[in-house]
Design goal:
This protein has 236 residues and is an alpha/beta fold. It contains 7 helices and 7 strands; from the N terminus they run αββαβαβαβαβαβα.
Amino acid sequence: MSRPTRPSRFWETLAVVIVKPLSRLLVKRDWRNGDRMPRTGGVIIAANHLSWADPILLTHFLYNNGRWPVILAKSALFKVPLLGKAVRGLLAIPVDRDSSEAARSLRVSAERLDDGCAILFYPEGTCTRDPGLWPMVGKTGVARLALESGARVIPVAHWGAQELLPYGEKKPRLFPRKTFHVTVGPPVDLSKYAGKSPHADVLREATADIMAAITAQLAELRGERAPETPYDPAGR
């Protein structure tokens, strides 16, 4: 029996009537290269992370460009009354980064990719701590998922969500109205890793390639030159 690649009509309609008007209200749009987003098939969407607001804004962009993004959400959210039912209905994948269950989220993600889903992945694992808000060194989960599943990795960069809701703040800065800039890059070329065992060095190199692709798209959006070496919170 095939598994759904989109929520039920009820949950999808509920999300759309909330997210789209909210997104339009909060920000102006500068959307670029949406035609690069594959409309069908399992795909990993790898994005930078700037704000708690960017998942909502990215969801609007991806939905309008033909994909329902399956997100990885903290397992604690699934235990909250009503909210837990909603995140399940929206096909979110639970993840607990501080336990062995983190590996389970990758297995479930691989199954969803086989079904043809689009998985929205934040390789940094959290909002960037880079002083210039450039992408940090990524965690290797996205590379492992890509190499083991063979799914395409589509780099997506965005800018502006941090002006609406800076990381760590709970109250949005509504005025003046901000602009959400987003662009899609071509699939990351991971062909040089084909057939290689996904040991630590390979995963780190593939992760660096994915993060470099995201960073290149962000540099184009910002019209600035990115740092040559990404910020590493573990080695700062």
